[in-house]
Amino acid sequence: MLINNDLKTLDLTVGDVFSQNPRLKARNVSVFYGDNKAIDNVTIDIGNKEVISFIGPSGCGKSTFLRCFNRMNDTIDSCAVKGEITIDDENIYDKKIDVVPLRARIGMVFQKPNPFPKSIYDNVAYGPRIHGLSENKEHLDGIVEESLKRAGLWEEVIDRLDSPGTGLSGGQQQRLCIARAIAVSPEVILMDEPCSALDPIATAKIEELIHELGNDYSIVIVTHSMQQAARVSKKTAYFHLGKLIEVGRTKDIFTRPQHHQTEAYISGKIG
Amino acid sequence: MNNKIISPSDALDIVKKSIVKRRSRDNRLKLFGRIAIGVAVCFLLTLFYSIFTKGYPGFFQYYVTLDIKFDRERIDPKGDLSDNSLFDGEASIIVNESLYSIIQPKGRKEKKLAKKIVSSGKDVRIAKMVKNNPSLFGTTTSVKFALDDDVDSFLRGYLKRETPENERRISDKAIQFIDKLNEEGRISYEFSDYILGGSASGNAEMAGIKGAFIGSMLTLSVCLLIAFPLGVATAVYLEEIAKKNRITEFIEVNINNLAAVPSVVFGIMGLAIFISIFGMPRSIPLVGGMVLALMTLPTIIISSRAAIRAVPPSVRDAAYGIGASKIQVIFHHVIPLAMPGMLTGTIIGMAQALGETAPLLMIGMVAFIVDVPNSVLDPGTVLPVQIFMWADFAERMFIQKTSAAIIVLLGFLISMNALAVYLRKKLERRW
Amino acid sequence: MENTHISSSFDKDLNKLNDNLLKLGNTALDQFESCINNFGTQNLDEIKTVISNDKILDDLDDKVQKYGFEIIALRAPQAADLRRVIVALKIATIFERIGDYSRNISNRTKLLIELKYTDLPGVNIGKMGQKTQTMFEDVLDAYINEDDKLAVKIRNSDIKIDKMHTEYYLEIISHMQRKKNFAPTGAHLLFIAKNIERVADYITDVAEQIYFLVNGRALSDLRPKADKTSLKIPN
Known about the structure:
The complex is a heterotrimer.
Chain A: H1 4-10, E1 14-15, E2 22-33, E3 36-47, E4 51-55, H2 62-68, E5 79-87, E6 90-91, H3 99-105, E7 106-109, H4 120-131, H5 137-150, H6 154-157, H7 170-182, E8 188-192, H8 200-213, E9 218-222, H9 226-232, E10 235-240, E11 243-249, H10 250-255, H11 260-266
Parallel strand pairs in A: 1-11, 4-9, 4-10, 7-8, 8-9
Antiparallel strand pairs in A: 2-3, 2-5, 5-6, 10-11
Helix pairs in contact in A: 4-5, 4-7, 5-7, 7-8
Chain B: H1 8-55, E1 60-69, H2 72-75, H3 83-88, H4 91-103, H5 107-117, H6 122-132, E2 140-146, H7 149-156, H8 172-183, E3 187-191, H9 210-241, H10 246-258, H11 263-277, H12 285-309, H13 313-321, H14 326-354, H15 358-362, H16 383-390, H17 396-427
Antiparallel strand pairs in B: 1-2, 1-3
Helix pairs in contact in B: 1-17, 5-8, 9-12, 9-14, 9-16, 11-12, 12-14, 13-14, 14-17, 16-17
Chain C: H1 8-41, H2 44-75, H3 79-115, H4 123-145, H5 148-178, H6 183-215
Helix pairs in contact in C: 1-2, 1-3, 1-4, 2-3, 3-6, 4-5, 4-6, 5-6
């Protein structure tokens, strides 16, 4: 195990930062809110079709970093992002890149389920409609059905597609949001604490869903529950005060972490 | 154990003792609240009572029923029912003849007196009737005519017999005639067809609010068509698109202040800019509507901004996250969700505008307009101004009609506010 | 494992643990069966196979420990799942130790063959071995079926093995007292008998773990003991 002093001077991330055939690459990314540095020089790969979770104590910047991948930080005026994030070797922060199609490639599911105040059908159909993904009504119906099936919600809502999305239970609403994200055929799905507003059974169902989705999409999930990271992801990245401390296979992180800070967080000594 | 913390049993005693004081304080507060509400309700009831008792009779008038010979050659000499022909015709003479046959005045002086008993609008009434129904020609039909306003006031009991003649507005002879007509059962108290159907008139018995009402509707329409889109667009721009810097703060402060500016100032501005600089005609609903729009804009902008702010950021995040552009987020999500609040604010703004008098006086919508305006470019007046003008006239009947007009105005204000409340409740979303 | 978890990967992990544990148990059983047979047949090749196969047991035990450890770290199992994992870890160790004893018995059998002593009073050892083997087979069944009643039966039958061991011990001792050059052979026989008795004890431990797995509490009454070898001084 690496000792405190070594790492403070080296200031490097421990573990497997890089992946073979990554979907997204983040290089030396720093994020500022005004003068406040929220993310400090983070480099990491997001692997193809695998689930990676970001863990760390509150305020360590994991949500901020997550939002960099689909440029949701653009909606916050005081936020500045430095460094490079590339998808297929294109820097998404380049001036030429249009943020709208980017967000169709990299979808997002939020902490509190936020279906549109529209019908279930319209919730899922909205994305394909505005991006022009469907050719006709039948095609759109097909997209909606397939997305709801993949999100594990089709059976439960098949006879009430016109009823409002807000009338579903918390767990169902979150699955609706996942279906909505899937409907625009993303390559990556970002999830920001998707289960924190749900009860344990709904959480377990969503976790099982994430496990299945990991076969088709690259998923990045931010979670404040270490146990959830342990259950759901293949890889885990530990953040602390804006720095990426360690990245590795979830099994290894939870049985023999290399960095003493990771060990301290996992065993509940800090954070 | 820290001895600053009181033990549970001691705490219980202290709380029990203090509960009596607290309860009595609560009850006193409740009592004060009830008294305050009671006083307010009393004032309100008194107001409504006085308005209704004064105004209700304003919807009614006294009429005299006379048998009229519809003689074509006399009424429509040219035979074509044109205004010219009817004007040349002898409709009033026919009416007078019918009247004389009942009360039988003797001599010119008495005949002159008798003529004045029936409202001077008698020929207009005949003309309207034959125009609508030419088959009346050749018949003798009974027609109801409004009585002159002094006669009406006498019949209501405001002008008393007991007053000496030289102090009365109505002479003894006239009273005699009236009594005769009454004996014959020809005088009746009916719902007035003038109050709502007639326009401004110097004669109280013929005065009505139709012209003013149409004028109000036209002016409000102009105001709505200008203020609503402009107000909503401004609110959307300030909330969603403009960067938050000194300039937008400055704009926001000014809009908030404008909401407190006395409405007469907007009238002066309308006079100076629309009428003097742009050279638009005075007294037309278009200019009135523009002035009212300027006045209502701050209200609409402020309530629309509040409605837009009330849209939770989670809906915006969800829309951005799915790849909607800023305009799509605004038009597909924010505006529909903010619409109930925007509509409510607009309706309340319109209700305020409906009752505005001062700015419209400034731009001259106070002229005595008899004709009902047909478009926004015809001169007109509005209901509150009409009320204001009638309040100047001395005749008793004007007082009643003024109160009746106030009732109509209040009725509209209440229903507009009720509509706002209904819309708000119906469209309220839970997200 | 009847009921499935909402998380299918949790089920997969538990099954992986269980499969490896059963593999370990069955291999240990085969080893034991083999070493008892080889005592009778004295087939040197078979004996060498048993000795070299012991490594398989060590590897399987390592695997079970690793999987159990990971499940505890990653899944935080509760209630029956927790008992299952802990019991699996304990039983794996026990099977591995039983494997060690099978290897020891095989080593000693090899030495016995070299000593070339004929006319071994070994009938009882065979019987003891068979009985222990039956216990072993039963305990594996009890584990697979989570049969606590069978587990109690197995535990109670340990007393028979103890009795047989005491008898055998006395027999060997008296033999060693009569014939001096029998002593080395006798010593090996004693050790082999003791090893078999220890295996039976271990199997009883496994049975007690199975009882705990099913009921959530330890088998309370004291195990009946009849091994009086440490108490009796032979004459």
